[in-house]
Structures are given as structure tokens and as C-alpha cells.
Amino acid sequence: MKERVLITGATGFVGYHLIAEALNNNLEVYAAIRKSSQIDHLKELNINYTYPDFGNVMVLKKELDENKYDYIIHAAGVTKARSASEYDDINAGYTMNLASAAAESQNNLKKFVLISSLAAIGPLNSLNGVITEQTTPNPVTAYGKSKLHAEENLKAIKSLNYCILRPTGVYGPRDKDIFIFFRQLVKGIEPYIGREAQKFSFIYVTDLAKAAIKALHTAGQCAYNLSDGAVYDRYELGNITREVLNIKPYKFHLPVNFVKLIASVSEKYGSLKNKASTLNVEKLKELMAVSWACDIESAKADLGFYPEYNLRTGVTETLKWYKSNKWL
Question: CB-hemisphere CA count at 13 Å for 231?
């Protein structure tokens, strides 16, 4: 009999790849979705659908009791929101509700895996050093704070066997965030904010999905930072994209204060439309951070996590998918 996993955030970019990897590992997948969700891209997958109410602990408990999941991978959340409270309500609140339901359920859950973010720890203010699991958290955005709050909520439930994964910048087929940068290059422009040196880290989505499945079988409560194990300067993503696509976009640097003004205007416009803005003042804090250099030695040692993709191989695969699916 197959072991059963509930995957939340199933219709999202990361969720799709979590489902694919779970199926590759012979797990029976229940995809948590909203009744209004677009699921055309999931229809060819051999999965079940469920429609949990993340705002109601008792309803969630009933869901867990009835479906008797062996594992939960909680990837549901928002990366864009209209306010700090909206980030917290969804990213931290939903985590607390689902984790509480899992702890109260009669079902013997083997593992609760939370897909958090390196933003929960926050960037370094120096080009020296790396972010580790022992780094004191200092998130610089409401998003990062909400993810840290989600982790704290999970850790407060002592009876729950959990594993927290903190991926750095995730990219790959179906991503719509870093895709914006790729699209700009294809259009002939390669913009950067300011001229200060920066360090970035990335993780290809398939490697994240494999880490999540490995985390299902960890012993005890744990937390790991995830990247591809390398550190890149601010131009590496653009340089690789140029070479792979054989294009020569115009590279230029925007003044920091100008970008802040644009972000502020975008944020206010979004507020008037009651929509979350992709570019906002808080997002700039992450984009302009000095260093997201990340150490993954603990994940290697404990999870057996050895990323298969570096930035060049991952970007090559990603761009190939975008072109074949007519995104670019």
C-alpha cells in the first residue's frame, strides 16, 4: 500500500514540482487546492484533489482524520501581499492551523515538512561570511517576518515531528518571478539597481522538490537552509542567460532612489486597485541586500542533499522550457 502525502500550495510553481517528485517516489498524492484554482496543468498527473479550509482548525482536523495522511508538505503561502497582516495571516496563520490540526488529529502523521524561505533568516550585511542554520534571524521584509513567524508557530507544537526547509531564490520551469528578469533580457534590456557588489544564491526547483521528499524521512525535528551550494555575483544570472540565448541586451544601472520611487508608486497603485504589487518598497530590501550566500553543509550531512543543478545547468533547462512553452 502506498504512503499518502498531502501537498498544499499544489497549484503553484513549487507545488507542481513537489507533486511530480512525490509521484516519482511512489507516493499517493493529495493536492490541496481551492475550488477556484486553475488545475489544467495538473490534469495529466495521477493525483487526488482536496479542498481544505486553512482558516478552520476543526475542519482541517477532520480532513486529516478522514484521509489519514502519512506526510504533509506545506508549501501554501503568498510571496506578494497587500499588507504585513495579510502575509502573517496566510503564511504564519495557515501554518499554525494546519500544524495544530495535525497535532490534534487521531492520525499518526509521520512528518510535517514546511517550505519556508531563507528570507526568514534574512540577508547578510557584509560580503564576508555565509548564512547558516545558526545565523540569528533578522528578516528585512514582512514576507520574511511572516515566514519566521510560521517557523516559530511550528516549533511551538512540541509533539509534532517537523522539518523546516529554507530555500534561497527558487527558479525553474513555471516560475513567474525570476522569469520577469529573463523576459527583460529577451526584450533587449538588462537592468540592475545601483552598482554595489552583491552575492546571490539560487536553487533549481527540482532540487528543492527532491530535498522535500528526503525531508519526509528525517529523524526528529529539524531545519535546513537550501541552495545549490554555490555563490554568484550580481551579474552571473544575466551572463548565463545571454550565453544560452545568444543575445546581447543593453546592460545599465538604475539609480537606487529612482527605483525606490518607482516601487513606491507601484505599491500605491496596487493599493488603489486592492492588489498586491510585484515591485514594492519591501521587495527592494531583498533585491538590494548585500549577500544571500548560504551554507548547505547541514543539509548535505543530514538529508543527503546534493544538488544536481548549478545555476548554468538550471537556467539552461529553464530557458528551454520557457521557449518550448512559448513563454519567451
Answer: 15
